[in-house]
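Work through this protein:
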Amino acid sequence: MPAAVPADAADRGWLALRARLEAKPAADTPRATGARGWVVRWLPLTLGLQMVLALFLAAAWLATPRPAEYRTLGAAAGATTANALVVFRPNATESAIRQALRAADARIVGGPTVTDAWLLRLPDGGASSLARLRAEPAVARIESLEGEPVR
C-alpha cells in the first residue's frame, strides 16, 4: 500500500502548478524570440510579397499575345481568297512549279482538289499573271475564277 500523502501537501503542489501555468512568459525568453517570433514578425511581409508576385504573374499571363487560331486553307477569307485555278503537268518538278508561281507573283491558297487542281491568289485581278502562267511549261491548265477580263 502506498504511503498516505498529507492533504495540505497536495493542495500546495496544485497551487504551485496552477501558478506556473497561469504565469506569462517573459519577453526575453528564447521561446518568444526564436523561430515563432520570426514568423510572427515576417508573416505580413511575406504574404504581401506573395500577393504582389501573384498579381504580376497574372498580369504577365494576360498580356501575353495568343497565337492565331488554326484555320484550314479552305476556310481562308479576305486576301487569301482564291481567284484562279491551276493544274500542273504530272511530270512538272517542284522547282519548275515554284518558278512558275514566282514569275506570276501567285500564291497557293488551297488544294489540291480531287481533280489535282490548286487554288491560287493572283494579284490585281490576274490578267497578266494568267498570261504568264499559260506560257509556263509546268502548267497544264489555268482558269480564272472571277471570269476572263474583257479585252
Remarks:
- Residues 60 and 66 are 12 Å apart (CA to CA).
- The chain has a mean pLDDT of 81.
